[in-house]
Amino acid sequence: MGLDDAPPGWHDDPDRGGQNGRELPWSSEAEQSVLGGLLLDNRALSLVSDLLSERAFYMADHQAIFGAISKLIGQQQPADVITVFEALKDVGAEDIGIVYVNALAASVPSAANIRRYAEIVHEKWSERMLIAAVDEQAGVAWNAQISLDDRIERMAAAIAKVEQQRKNPGARIPLMRLPALRQAASGISWVVKHVLPADSIGILFGGSGTFKSFVAVDCALHIAHGLPWMGRRTNRGSVLYIAAEGGAGLWNRIDAWHRQRGMEWTEAELAVVPIPVDLAADAWRVVDAAQAQGVTPALVVVDTLSQTYAGDENSANEMAAYLRELGLRFRSLWNCAVLVIHHTGHNATERPRGSSAIRANVDFMFGVFRDEKEMLATLSCAKQKDGEMFRDAVFQLSVAELGLDDEGDAITSLVARHLGTEEQIAEARAKEAEAGRGGRNQQLMDLVQNGMLEKELRRAFYESVVEGLDSEAKKKAFGRARAAAVNAGLIEIAEGFVIDLRKGQK
Predict the structure, then answer these.
(1) Which long-range contacts link 58-61 to residues 24+ away (Cβ below 8 Å)?
(2) I need a labelling partner for 137 at 20 to 30 A (CA). Which of 57, 237, 251, 266 fits?
(3) What is the pLDDT of residues 406-455, one digit of tens each?
């Protein structure tokens, strides 16, 4: 059976006829494209499962095929032409034929546009439900034996039921037995081992001037070259960088990164969207652009949230919808990690700005912190759903010269480099202190008196350094400065007392 042939018998189904012999609304092309896309890429089911159930399909054969695909994927089994046909045979639907199932798989080049096809199928199904509800209530509307109020109430209830079903299509819920669950848990893949999971979405947040974008670029380029990042293995893959704050500045950072390492930028698997895009509405356009150039990213960087989101950051529903859209369009389609760069508030520097729905709807959260004028940035893990939270990592920022502009002025950019050992961190902090850029770490050391109580040091730090911050921010600022001093071998805490390990103790 070819794609132009309807399955035998469906014309004779009385439930499929409209009023006055008119055909009910449906789209054979959209239904076929959804099924073909699912056969090509089983991961695409997550892109359409919120819209479709078996009953959303008009043709009975399409219902059976979608049901077989959904069941196989829910059982963690591959859903291809052969396995789907075998599943159809198990339910007595083998008359559909393997030729037709194979034709479905061959009817679309990829699953890239499956969400839009599913939206068409869902819309046509909603129209059919509305028509059926109106037809069913037509007799009630003409029945004078029923009060007008009762007739109106029945009509309203029928329409409300259609609306409820339209918003909650009742897609098949996957049920996994323990062996399948164990296999799925052990099969977690990573873009960066124990840092960036594949098939995930998360936030990299930080205040203005904390170097968060430079850290993101460093991560992206390590992945694009397949180099270990922070000493952790990466799975080399393409990176899609949405530079919503402008592509020119990003190029300088990419150029500087490669020059500092003596590497060729031409070898980096990185593609850039150099303009702001409203990802809540137009993420599919980014997908189309990537597909057109054959880009299947392992990592998508969104720089920044504020430049790609037109809604209210403080609205839980709107923020959740934005993150859900990124998950549907990018994460689920490409099985990639999505890293969204976001700002902190003016006072709440220890968390991302906006609704608490951000934390609830992401798989990981990383914060970037900088102490005053230091050319050092600390990457801290605030949430990691699929693994252990990693220890704070320190990055050193340095200036790279890129040449001269048309007016003879130097072109420069900052480059982030991870400091992998305690010795490197201690050396870097010492140089920062010598340069008068000790920031809060140095301010803590200025308060240290050999033999003083730790609580006295904490109190003095709160009063003289972090005035104006809330109690939680003060606590974390002190904790980072204390840890930096201990790790650098400058102080030791014993029995609640501070031991100054510097030469010439105060």
Answers:
(1) 58/16, 58/24, 58/26, 58/28, 58/31, 58/124, 58/125, 58/128, 59/6, 59/7, 59/10, 59/26, 59/28, 59/31, 60/7, 60/9, 60/10, 60/13, 61/7, 61/10, 61/93, 61/96, 61/100
(2) 57
(3) 877 778 889 999 999 989 988 888 787 766 676 777 788 889 998 899 99
Per-residue model confidence as pLDDT tens digits over 462-472: 887 654 567 77
Largest pairwise CA distance in the chain = 102
Please name every residue paired with 491 in a beta bridge, in sequence order, or none if there are none. Answer: 500
Long-range (24+ apart) CB contacts under 8 A made by 86-91 are: 88/64, 91/64, 91/67
pTM (2 d.p.): 0.65
By three-state DSSP, how is residue 23 classified? strand
Would you tell me how many other CB atoms lie within 10 Å of the CB of residue 229?
21
Q: What Cα–Cα distance (Å) separates residue 47 from each residue in 80, 121, 125, 217, 327?
A: 18, 13, 18, 28, 9
Q: Over 70: is that where the pLDDT of 11 sits? A: no
Mean pLDDT of 162-183: 70
Domain locations along the chain? 10-167, 190-419, 422-500
Task: Tell me the pLDDT tens digit for each residue of 288-337.
Answer: 899 889 899 999 999 999 999 999 999 999 999 899 889 878 987 788 99
User: 190-419 maps to which CATH number?
Assistant: 3.40.50.300
* Class level of CATH domain 10-167: mainly alpha
